Fold this sequence. Notes:
- The structure holds three protein chains of three kinds.
- Chain A contains ten helices and ten strands.
- By secondary structure, chain A is an alpha/beta fold.
- A six-stranded mixed sheet of chain A has the order 6-7-8-3-9-10, sandwiched between helices.
- Chain A is globular, with a radius of gyration of 18 Å.
- The longest helix of chain B is centred in the first third of the chain and has 32 residues, at 5-36.
- Chain B has one domain (5-281): Orthogonal Bundle (ABC transporter involved in vitamin B12 uptake, BtuC), CATH 1.10.3470.
- In chain B, 51% of the residues are buried.
- By secondary structure, chain B is mostly helical.
- Chain B contains eleven helices and two strands.
- Helix content of chain C is 79%, strand content 1%.
- Chain C has helices at 3-22, 25-51, 59-74, 79-101, 108-114, 116-126, 128-131, 147-170, 172-182, 184-189, 194-220, 225-228, 231-244, 251-265, 271-288, 292-304, and strands at residues 137-138, 222-223.
- Chain C has a two-stranded antiparallel ribbon with strand order 1-2.
- The two termini of chain C are 23 Å apart.
Amino acid sequence: MAEPSILEIQGLRRDFGGVQALGGVDLQVRRGKITGLIGPNGSGKTTLFQAVSGMDREATGRIYFDGHSILGLRPSRIVALGLGRTFQLSRVLPGLTVLENLLVASRPDDSEAEDRAHNLLRQVHLERQVHVLGKALSYGQQKLVEFLRVLMRSPKLILLDEPAAGVNPTLRRTLWELVRQLQEQGTSLMLIEHHMEVIADLCDEVYVLNEGRIIARGTFSEVREDPQVFAAYFGHRNRTAS
Amino acid sequence: MLWESSVLLQLALSGLLAGALYALLACGLNLVFGVMGVINLAHGELMIAGAFLSWLAYRYIDLHPLVVLPLVMGLLYGFGVLLQRWLIERLTGRDELTSLLVTYGLSILLMNLGLLLFSADFRSVPVLQGGFYLSSLDLVISKPRAVAGAISLALTLGIFGFLRYHRMGKAIRAVSEQPEVAMICGIDVAKVRQMTFGIAAAMAGAAGVLLSILYSFSPETGGEFLLKCFAVLVIGGMGNFLGALLGGLLLGLVEAFVGGFFNVQWAEAVAYLLLVLVLLLRPGGLLGQRHAVF
Amino acid sequence: MRYSDLGIGALLLFFSLLAPGFLNNYQLSFLLQVLMMVTLAQSWNLISGMTGYISFGHGVFFGVGAYTGALLLMGGAFWWVAILSAALLAAALALPLGLLTLRLRGPYFAIAMLGLNEVGRILANLWVDLTGGGDGIALSPLLSPVLATNYFSMLALAVLATLGMGWILRSRFGLELRAIREDEEAAEMLGIDTIRNKLIAFTASALLPGAAGAIYAFYTSFIDPSSVFLPALNVQMIVVVLLGGRGTLWGPVLGAVLLMSVQELTWAEFPALHLALLGLLMILLVLYLPDGLLGAWKRIGSRYG
Lengths: 242, 294, 305
């Protein structure tokens, strides 16, 4: 077994024209665990995902994924190392069929990609939509296809950016089942999510991000008790005091 | 003797004056891109339309270009509004490659209509002759260059002021930045876009009139200037009005110095070299945050 | 390729192979030009139809190929060596161009390609030692292949281009190119090396125009800057693909046959009018028939079929 954490972030900083989006974030994602990332809107959660996945290569600091330094690598290189990521708003390829959406995400040398795609679609009851164009799916189905797409390469770590937003309750249950299954199979996951019951239910460890900094870390119940977290969500303590 | 300060000053001044014309043209192109996200490849042809209007007025009714300048700007404003209403408005919300194809088609259509009407012969409007002698600096600046440069600069700054301080200018900026919010606030977004395209077309038309007293031109001259505009935009930042102004002045300056120290043919290539150089060195951030760059 | 595609292809090929037997020289020349347009349009289709990166200057590869072919032939090379070299040189030119512009997203590529055909024409005019400048190059009839040879060479190119397109459309490479057209960031995030793919597509799309340029030079036996860096050719290949249908196999073929026939019968003799109409056609197609004739046909078919 290599290092205990699959993702190690040290001192990650990102400025947008003078506005600090990430102000030196340190974070570890442990192997085989589900790590939650929560925080108010605009706290820098998606910015963090953008940097880790290589979509944004202007951040500074250190990011190690599975022993490789990945800051500055293009997304396709990082994906080749075993990272997968979904987007906050669905990015299903609209003019490709559901099957094509999955196949294009498979490893080029994967001879069983087509079987794998059909199996995944059956698992979430989308087998009848195989030849439907991405844009013809409901939004919830699109989010699901986007998730399945990531699974085509059996990544070691998956970053999920609000995977259940806009998904109806039935599909949502399917989705969380899938997440748990993945974890049982040894996949590490990192999850941005606003529903605290989901975080409480799924996550082994939770990080709380506020204004570009980690303000708390621990199990959900530990984090919940943290006064700083309360302040971040419900207004600044010092402001209410004054 | 090339290094004498009077020669340097001469080159700098004539470069800045020539650059002002690029700025006027590029700012219009940039305005349309900034507000509509449309790269108007027919912008050069709009300029040439202005130049031919100036030539027609001079040739057939003996009107001075500076007299027809406001008329041409009005005409092109109207033409721009119509183009926006009938053509460009249909492109909002579609991908930028679609708009590139349409404006490319428009550019080819207009250029070849120009060739049909006026042939490929070069024309000019030689109204201003000689130069101004600035005794204090011991410099001679050619009259057409001084007049065209000064008017270009005044127009560019005037329109910048309008966009920044006038109510309608603020509406244009609102539509550019937050079209949905602008709509909710009761701004007629389609009208504002028409006005924007009209202003850009009027700027191109003005640039054409000024071009006609500076250089000889043909219907095919527009493409050349369009490429220079892109060099200006890439240097100054796409969508950035003041950036395009500074980029235009800079391009004029560099062209003048290259032309003065090497030769004029090299000066013509400067724009492309700058374009390539910027693309090589600063591929990120050129479009601002509008587009991610891989 | 599907069987229906193979059937259509075989039928077209059969007719084209027999054509020299029953067509006169004028008709054969016309058919040669149609095949040339098929080749050019398929090439444009590969980079612009498949990936969505619009190349406004693809004519430059044709012009470079024409000069390469003519000069090599006059230098004593076998005609097929000249054609092959023309193809390779055009691709070798595309590679650095692509490296420079395809790293960038959005309209930069289109802008960079915009003036390229014109730059090619100006360079051919200025580089007198090599190209003879505005006087052009006259190819000795003793060295040039005969019309039938040129016809079959062009036929081979058109077949190659269409077969290649058919293969790409069915391949993973084609799927990846389409993913890039749909959403480039998402494609990259799925592990697709978008830059490498775009570069391969662009370089490959320069090969056949280079070869076609060489054959065209043999066929006309005289070239000069304005006849091979021809604005009309540059615009035609775009209109042909838009007319037939972007990113489809038979769109460029259908478009080439239709556009070439119509313009031959009507306005081809008036260059400015011709181009003005092509410009107008381009606007109308993008606005009212964005998927081209094949796309419209499919839509009608699915509505009533």
